[in-house]
Design brief:
Layout (H helix, E strand, L loop, with lengths): L18 H57 L2 H7 L1
């Protein structure tokens, strides 16, 4: 049996899917894809922030140790340093 289509002359044949239905399906698919992209980026942001915080922490620690050594070498008296070590 032949399935009636949109060009069928049968008045009882189901109507062709409207453009609005196709538009709604396209919008739903677009929303799902967009939501997937946003969620994927949201998951990767904390990892990037953690790496940035870690590298910033080491940079600040290195700066502190440089300043500490400079102060120790230039401003702490030798007699105090020898008794403190």
């Amino acid at each position: 049996m032949e399935r009636p289509g949109p060009l069928s002359s049968d008045p009882h044949a189901p109507a062709a899917p409207s453009r609005l239905r196709y538009l709604a399906r396209g919008a739903a698919i677009g929303l799902l894809i967009g939501a997937g992209v946003v969620i994927g980026q949201a998951i990767s942001i904390p990892e990037t922030l953690a790496q940035t915080k870690t590298s910033d922490t080491y940079r600040q620690l290195d700066l502190f140790s440089q300043v500490f050594e400079r102060i120790r070498a230039d401003y702490v008296e030798k007699s105090f340093r020898s008794s403190a070590d």
